[in-house]
């Protein structure tokens, strides 16, 4: 199998890029010809960033699962679609061929239908990284329902908020999940999330850990039991629901600088096209190769580059249940060796953490199958880049530094492996169809360079096929968040540099969003959680550089409650509250108790000062004269952790 739209040279990249800008409709229209449609489009693209309204392939009808499964049954039916490596290396791995995956997806689609799920209904999926998670995702899409996958590290409260926001009626979960040495009791978290919930009708529970779970009569059903009924009836096929190109495919919640996480909505056709196109081009996927993306399907990276991108390309996607450091820090290398992985796609935080274990875990591991390495989720520092290049890629594998976001659906800026040049810690060039622009605070394009480098806020001028369509249930929020900061531009929230060759380097968020181990967390969200703790008067949260996580969470807390004599215990109490409200991923690394916070006369917290103190740059705090009480700065600085 070949991909006619796979770019094969730097020259071709340039001509394709130009074509995509001059004639987006012609460019994407001809790529779309290589997919399966029930009906073709009337118009390739129609958009304005004012409302915003973006429509790709209007009038077309399709089902993404026919593109991921049915169309490969004949040519690749016996080839592996998903290879699953369990948490415990002693447990047997599983392989699902395209035929088997198709069958399982159809069967589970029947289960969903039997339980009342209809087109457009929201199905929340809260599972560990087992093949049934991918099956649940695809089965939901098969019948035209909307999946909303929630990462296993979120708390009951976070799930409850998401269920409420999405008005979800169905949940698919597991009894528990294995992650390294831990068992996470997923069903029990769901039970807590459902206290007071009024919308959820059915919960389907897949057995994994066989940890004891409560099963409520009439609401909770076992996955195996439901599947058995379908299998016994021989219901191995289900007609895919015919979807409009712009019908929603899924909702994925992500953090912003204000308020609660928002439900980013992606639609069927554009998302399918762009994840496929970027998968094939960025990683230069060749038929038969094994692609190992280490992300969790609970995040956008897993949606786009474990499930939809690879499967729509007929690829073999390796899915791993566990963590990189269990049973030891050689786990990734064992997996590469065992399955002869060709493409490894991971996060800088994982690389930095593995670097800390030295070269021992790499010894006697055959990594010679690797052809392409990738990183995603946060800026990669040069040291980590070179370690990855030398010790994992043995200097013969191109590294793709892929910049994108939940809202972008797929990779927007990245080198193409072995085709366009790489530059350590630079994401480099935009993909065809992507028009970045750096602007100043007022939205004017920055053209002035210092030593050949321009620096500004990263925006995108025109839509690519998998751009966010709306935030679920609140279109105005989508407009305000992404399209209102600068007129007629999509604002990414990131800052970036651009060099004379037109390469981009992403420097990090310029809003109040943190990136902790590649996970996006809003400072406001963490503050709200801390403020819910009894005795907390006020708090302010900022990020600071962290060797492994990229950014750590630093919280300044005014507390006048009980047990203040034991600060260390009170800190732990506060961490418990954050874990309950958001989940363990949002726990601050440092909590400093303070008497006051630096505020302007109008009552605004001067985060700039708090950030500097957290970063340890106490000499250069800048102008503090506008503060209501400049004295608090000295106190905070002196008490720095
Ligand atoms: O700040 C950028 C950072 O991750 C943010 C998006 O986070 P999320 O929506 O969770 O998606 C992560 C996976 C796509 C961006 O705004 N980011 C992502 N990739 C890179 C990056 N920063 C620098 N370099 C990257 N390659």
From TrEMBL:
Q: Which residues form the Acetyl-coenzyme A synthetase N-terminal domain?
A: 13-68
In what residue span(s) does the AMP-binding enzyme C-terminal domain sit?
Answer: 525-604
Give a GO molecular function annotation for the protein.
Answer: acetate-CoA ligase activity
A Gene Ontology annotation in the biological process aspect, one of them, is: acetyl-CoA biosynthetic process from acetate
Coiled-coil segments on the chain, per record: none
Write down the EC number.
6.2.1.1
* UniProt keyword list: Acetylation, ATP-binding, Ligase, Nucleotide-binding
The UniProt entry, under InterPro entries, shows: Ac_CoA_lig, ACAS_N, AMP-bd_C, AMP-bd_C_sf, AMP-binding_CS, AMP-dep_synth/lig_dom, ANL_N_sf
Q: Which CDD domains match?
A: ACS
Question: Which ranges carry the AMP-dependent synthetase/ligase domain?
Answer: 72-464
Q: Which domain of life is it from?
A: Bacteria
The UniProt entry, under Pfam families, shows: ACAS_N (PF16177), AMP-binding (PF00501), AMP-binding_C (PF13193)
Q: Which family does it belong to?
A: Belongs to the ATP-dependent AMP-binding enzyme family.
Check the record and name the NCBIfam families matching this protein. Answer: Ac_CoA_lig_AcsA, PRK00174.1
- Which PANTHER family does the record associate with it? ACETYL-COENZYME A SYNTHETASE, ACETYL-COENZYME A SYNTHETASE 1
Name of protein: Acetate--CoA ligase
